[in-house]
From TrEMBL:
Entry superkingdom: Bacteria
Entry similarity comment: Belongs to the DegT/DnrJ/EryC1 family.
InterPro entries, per database record: DegT/StrS_aminotransferase, PyrdxlP-dep_Trfase, PyrdxlP-dep_Trfase_major, PyrdxlP-dep_Trfase_small
The keyword Transferase belongs to this UniProt entry's keyword annotation: yes
Pfam families: DegT_DnrJ_EryC1 (PF01041)
Name this polypeptide is given: Aminotransferase class I/II-fold pyridoxal phosphate-dependent enzyme
Keywords: Aminotransferase, Pyridoxal phosphate, Transferase
Entry's Gene Ontology molecular function annotations: transaminase activity
Transport is among the record's keywords: no
Organism of origin: Aequorivita iocasae
Length: 379
């Protein structure tokens, strides 16, 4: 067993984070407001472009929750959500007392399938309830079918909440992920492509969305010298310390994207000699993935081994791998939620595996990974 564990995706500091944090200490801005919060928001706004406004929040989950509130999702409503995703995409639907309606993936981007999405919308409308929003996710950094999903959203006049938690730095036809939703969200959790230790953001071209998100995230205080509230508020703002880390991380975001894409190339190189193992890749040049996580599909009938056998061999060598996200419609907590689709997401879950993908993996670690994988290639 090697002494140091190789993680799937671990924090990677660029170098200047600490000086922004020190500045916060020196000026005593140890609070959920201050120059780093405003600075981090500006950094994100200029990175995303397209006239987008950013509200920095305590997590991506908080951003999703506020997005649903801004779109008027409430008790008894239905919200469509990509089934294959992390539970944080779906949980805020339930926070609002609404019901998630899950939709299968398509096999090209692994994201929400346009055909099943439209089928779900038509059927929910026929049953008497038009869904209030569509939550679409760019899984592992791969953009979803942006144009097809937008077309359906416009046809039925249902807004899109774009979950871009895994896709900062990805783009579709040159436009950045995080700018395709009516409201979009980002995450800066410890395992994401950049981190603030914990944090998130709400993104919208509508300045009112930003202002209302900040209002709700700071306990919904009315304009009065005393504490007066006409609405229920939340404590969801990002701290000035965390935002300082974020400002340092923004300086190295593009470098991190390049390094993650190199990890993807590293795995493509290893597996190109093996029939039955495919590395998850962009369908065509319209798509640009940050390759947050490099993933493979293992077709046991062709290659003679399973993804679980790879995972266990890696674990024996202190290398972390993980199955793909287990679809939400297969989760015990969501057994009663409606589901539209077939078995695409389920199959991906059964044969897929995420491999160590960090931008901070050194060549020694890549050699270790390679050494565990080579016997599988030779099988
Ligand atoms: C990480 C993640 C989130 C939640 O972000 P947090 O900052 O951890 O709350 C939401 N959706 C997806 C797809 C994620 O990967």
């Amino acid at each position: 067993m090697s002494e140091t564990k190789i993680y799937l995706s671990s924090p990677h500091m660029g170098g200047n984070e600490q000086s922004f944090v020190n500045e916060a200490f020196d000026t005593n801005w140890i609070a959920p407001l201050g120059p780093n919060v405003a600075g981090f928001e500006k950094d994100l706004e200029s990175y995303l472009g397209n006239g987008n406004h950013v509200a920095a929040l305590s997590s991506g989950t908080a951003a999703l929750h506020l997005a649903l509130i801004l779109l008027g999702v409430g008790k008894g409503d239905e919200v469509i959500c990509q089934s294959m995703t992390f539970s944080a995409s779906a949980n805020p639907i339930v926070y609002q007392g609404a019901t998630p309606v899950f939709v299968d993936s398509e096999p090209e981007t692994w994201n929400i399938c346009p055909n099943h999405l439209e089928e779900a919308i038509k059927d929910r409308i026929a049953k008497g309830k038009k869904p209030k929003a569509i939550i679409a996710v760019h899984l592992y950094g791969m953009p979803y079918k942006v144009e097809e999903i937008r077309k359906i959203s416009e046809k039925y006049e249902i807004p899109i909440v774009e979950d871009s938690a895994e896709a900062l730095g990805s783009s579709y036809k040159g436009q950045k992920c995080g700018t395709f939703g009516d409201i979009s969200i980002l995450s800066f959790n410890g395992n994401k492509i950049i981190t603030t230790s914990g944090g998130g953001a709400l993104v919208s071209r509508n300045l009112k969305h930003k202002e209302k998100a900040i209002f709700l995230a700071t306990q919904a205080r009315d304009a009065a010298p005393h504490y007066q509230h006409s609405e229920i508020g939340y404590n969801y703002r990002l701290s000035n310390i965390s935002a300082g880390i974020g400002r340092g991380q923004m300086q190295v975001l593009d470098k991190h994207v390049a390094l993650r894409r190199k990890m993807h190339e590293f795995y493509r190189d290893i597996f190109k000699k093996k029939n039955g193992v495919t590395v998850f890749a962009e369908p065509n040049s319209d798509y640009f993935s940050n390759h947050w996580l490099s993933c493979i599909l293992v077709d046991t009938a062709i290659c003679g081994f399973t993804s679980e056998e790879i995972r266990l061999a890696m674990a024996e060598n202190n290398i972390e791998c993980r199955p793909l996200w287990k679809p939400m419609h297969l989760q015990p907590v969501f057994t009663n939620a409606p589901y539209y689709g077939g078995k695409v997401a389920e199959k991906l879950f059964n044969i897929g595996l995420c491999l160590p993908s960090g931008s901070n993996l050194i060549s020694e670690e890549k050699v270790k990974i390679n050494d565990v994988l080579i016997p599988f290639i030779d099988k």
